[in-house]
# Entry
Amino acid sequence: MNIKPIITGVLLLLAVAGVVAVFWQGNAEESTADTGTTVAADGLPTDGVVVYYFHGHKRCFTCNKMEALADEAIWHDFQDLVNDGSVVFKAVNIETDTDRHFIGDYELVNKVVVMSERRDGQEVSWQRLDLVWEKIADDEAYRAYITENLAASLERVGVEAG
# Structure
């Protein structure tokens, strides 16, 4: 049995499937779920809020806790909006070459949470949540701080929080 034609056929099928997937996905916006919410090709909401947690290479227990509690609060209180793409949570290492620009963009001096409000695919406003360091000792106060600020950001961009 000659395996070369089989391998060639499989590779050809994979190449065709890859080309079809690229054309299928496209570079334009795509609708998520059946809510009509759109997400840009970069994965950021067209209308909504990106909640960033910025960290460095070295991460202590408190830094990991900040990220985990922010992610937990967002999923607990805004799950539908996360699912439809209106809210996106991103943990970003600002010590990488590709993400170092965030230091200047958001005037970062420490590990912190930033809410980036987006309308029509563009950032229209942002808020750095500097009190995360004061709130982190109390899990409930920290989660409340995140959810209250996210609800306010969503209201400002016209997204109704469930």
About this structure: The chain has a mean pLDDT of 83. The chain has five helices and six strands. The first strand starts at residue 30 and ends at 31.
